[in-house]
Structures are given as structure tokens and as C-alpha cells.
Fold this sequence. Notes:
Elements: E1 21-30, E2 35-43, E3 56-60, H1 79-88, E4 96-100, H2 106-109, H3 115-135, E5 145-150, H4 152-163, E6 170-174, H5 180-189, E7 200-206, H6 210-225, E8 234-239, H7 246-251, H8 254-261, H9 265-270
Parallel strand pairs: 3-4, 3-5, 5-6, 6-7, 7-8
Antiparallel strand pairs: 1-2, 2-4
Amino acid sequence: MRSKKIYITKDIEGSGPIVGDIEYQHEFYSVNLKNERDIIIWLPPSYNSSFKKYPVLYMHDGQNLFNPQTSFIGHDWKADEVTTYLIKNNLIEEFIIVGINNTAERIEEYNYFTGKGKLYSLFLVSELKNFIDENYRTITGPENTAVMGSSMGGLISFQMLLNYPHIFGKAACMSNSFWVNKGEIFRSLAKYDSNPSDHKIYNDYETAENELIRDNRKMCRALKSIGFETGKNLYCHFAKGGVHSEMDWSRRLHLPLLFLFGKDEKLRADNRKTEIDPSS
């Protein structure tokens, strides 16, 4: 069966209103980090008209996800548009997105090898997740809890799955900074003692991200060596061209969403090479 090609119209390129229902938790304080940040909760289409419970995707760099006016480069990930499109076309299950805004200490917080990185991870699993589970209708098991980010956000997403395998069953790691601490992440992987069949990992980079190619390819080989299987619980995607930016991550956001939340295995397989083309 030929791969199905996904398109979103050029209207998505505008700076119109956020698609779907958004709730904000402003100045959410962390006891562990002794700081505060805004939290953005995106609710799936059926949330306010049903009593269902939903999986949750936690995403770093929350201010870059939904609104181009708050995004780092004025181009957001379009997480609301892309997720809504995939849900309405019956390609993925519905889930809640929790966008976690970064702070001025982003570099340290998004690295588990630092003290603040450990505290940020603890904030997410013991403070924020508890709040979300208590105030929203969530399915709380690791098989229904995912984490995603890019660059340093990709690194900390990977680290959270390694260090909290009983919390996160899925991780999407885009354009990862596996080079930090002289590649210490590879030594950390040696300590992974969970069953790979309990986890799913999406890993990618752009071929124009020359400084990231070697380590990301190395990581995919390492994951396979400890039991992860391509197409089953591991998806390594190497996108042609592009740069290290929100624009490029938004263009391929559908890939990790299909892999982690796709309706069934055949559907995920059929759509692995799909494209979302805002200019078509």
C-alpha cells in the first residue's frame, strides 16, 4: 500500500487564533526549582463534551508551541493545528498537550546531568504531573504519558524516559543535543534496565544539522543494540535539508505524533513517510 500524503492548507501559515481549547496556569510555582513559569494546557476536541479520560503529552518550550507571537522566532510549532488535523482525520487518538514554558535557566534545566536538570525533571513528575492528573481527566499510566522536545528539549525528554521509565512510556526527541557533557548520555544508556517493549522512542535530526548527525545516528544504533526495534518501538527519522528551528520542527511534528499516538500499527506504518506541507 502506498504511503498516504498529508497536507494542511496554506492558511495554517497565518497568525490566526489558536485552534481548540486552551487553558493557562500562569506563574505556576515549583517548590523544587524555586521559580515559576506559565503552563499551557491544550484540550482535545471532545474534552468539553465528554467524560472520557485522555493520554497526556508533556512538551518543553511551551511558548513556542501554539502562538507565533510568543514563539522564539515568530513561527510556532502549530501543535494545535497539526494535532487537530490528525485527530479529525482519524489518524491519531485524542490526547491532552501540556506546554511547559522555559525560563532563563533553560540550558541547565534541560540537562539531567546538572543539578537544575534533575530538579526540573522532579518538578515535572512530582509537581506538574500531579497537578494535571488532579485537575484534568487523564489516563495516568506510562503507556499513556509522553514527553517531547527539541534540541536541549529533546535531550531532557530522552533523559526523563531513561530516569523515570515508570512515569514516561513514550518520548519524542527532535534534533537532540546528545553532545552535551562530552556524550555522557551514551554512558547513561548503559544503565537502562527497563524492558524496551514498555517504551517507544522517536528520534530525528535534519541532514543540514551537521553537528548533530554523528551522535543521533550513534544513538539509534545504541538503542537497537539494547533491544529497541525499528518501526515497533523505535522510529529514527533523518529529514532532508532544513535547519535547527521551530519552522522545521513544525513541518515534521506529525511524524512523532503518528508514531506515538497513531490509531493502529498499520496506519502508523502507512504514514511514516507522510508530509504536512503548509504551502500546498
